[in-house]
């Protein structure tokens, strides 16, 4: 009986094997959801629920901003019995965020998040958002490597 050769293995892309991959490899696969800054909080919460996302991206005076689902919920809950806060525009709650290029390394992105106390970075190409990178995504990418 002759031993059979193992099946050929496919080569992984080099960036998938990198200990410190570029953010384009680990950023949110759905990319950011950009919404008009005039969108109402209620509509934004519904959109986040439907997309199972954590952040929305908007622009105010040309500046890219992001708002987290938790910030939208906090805004509504702090109002107590005043449901009018559901009608507030998302642009009023969104915070300026750092834009990073898709080739920035994961470690550099994590350092930037810590230094600026940013919960999320927007990955952009030529100033146009194409992905999101938050602390949870970074942690998940590190944990997957350790398996």
UniProtKB/TrEMBL annotation:
Protein name: CBS domain-containing protein
Feature: compositional bias, Pro residues: 1-11
Organism lineage string: Bacteria, Bacillati, Actinomycetota, Actinomycetes, Pseudonocardiales
Annotated segments matching region Disordered: 1-22
């Amino acid at each position: 009986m002759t031993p059979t050769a193992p099946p050929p293995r496919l080569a992984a892309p080099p960036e998938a094997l990198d200990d410190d991959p570029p953010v384009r490899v680990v950023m949110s696969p759905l990319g950011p959801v950009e919404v008009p800054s005039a969108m109402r909080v209620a509509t934004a919460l519904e959109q986040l629920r439907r997309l199972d996302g954590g952040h929305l991206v908007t622009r105010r005076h040309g500046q890219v901003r992001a708002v987290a689902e938790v910030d939208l919920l906090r805004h509504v809950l702090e109002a107590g019995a005043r449901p009018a806060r559901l009608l507030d525009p998302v642009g009023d709650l969104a915070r300026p965020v750092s834009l990073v290029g898709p080739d920035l390394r994961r470690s550099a992105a994590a350092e930037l998040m810590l230094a600026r106390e940013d919960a999320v970075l927007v990955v952009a190409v030529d100033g146009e958002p194409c992905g999101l990178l938050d602390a949870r995504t970074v942690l998940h990418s590190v944990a997957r490597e350790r398996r």
